[in-house]
User: Fold Zinc ABC transporter substrate-binding protein from Vibrio gallaecicus.
Amino acid sequence: MLSKFVIASGLLATSFFTNASLNVFTCQPDWAALVKQHAPNAEVFSATTAMQDPHYVQARPSLISKMRKADLVVCSGAELEIGWLPELQRQSRNSKVQNGKDGLFWTTDYVNMLDTHDHVDRSMGDVHGHGNPHVQFAVEDIPNISKALVERLAKIDPSNQALYKGNGVKFRADWRKHIKRWHSLGDSLKGMQLVGYHETHRYLFAWLGVEQVADLEPKPGLPPTVAHLNSLSSISSKDANGIVYSSHQPTDAAKWLSERTSLPVAELAQSVGGRPNTETLAALIDDSIAQLLNLQRN
Assistant:
């Protein structure tokens, strides 16, 4: 009787382990959405929302607890999370998600990075030597991230590798269809010139042929100042088609400059969920292009 109980308990434990959800900690809602499309049965958590600046996050006990349980951590990298992620890694004491381990996945490792610098110092503002880390807008590189993510998921959770691979193939096929449509939609945006607020949309602008000719920030990461905004007030419709800011940023600087230059203003989501109907990466790109087209019409 005892041996039967032991055997049954062992089978139950094995079954529970096999069916247990993969626990994934992500640094931004963009990567949470991406993981969900590849691993729909996983428990996925995002440390930030679309209305937060991912550069500046507190290493709260709740985040430490979430990371302690993680099988996989998916973040941008390129020092975007340098101010808070290392502290979460340290305090979580989760050996699976430390640097160099399979449980830590940097999306920027699979992107052709823009704006890399050989030398960076604090006088330059919040500049990342490894390049612009806002790669949720790196349209052409998202399939590379998808492939690498599938490989990592399969390595960590081989029992579900067929699911991950199948979802990855579907995601990339759909993404290629989106790219064709975005090319068609964005044709008229080529040559557009904008005043931006941080270079959050750098990859999308480069892909569309849009140029950010000025920035509301005096230096990357520094808030707009009156002196800097005054220096931009001579910009006219001959110099730029409009002003854009991200949905998590204050609106006052963009509105102030718009009132003095008569340039139209558009709000873009910085991340999945930052505006209505932006719950996936594809929807985020859709909405961003739609807002730029609206701006062009004004």
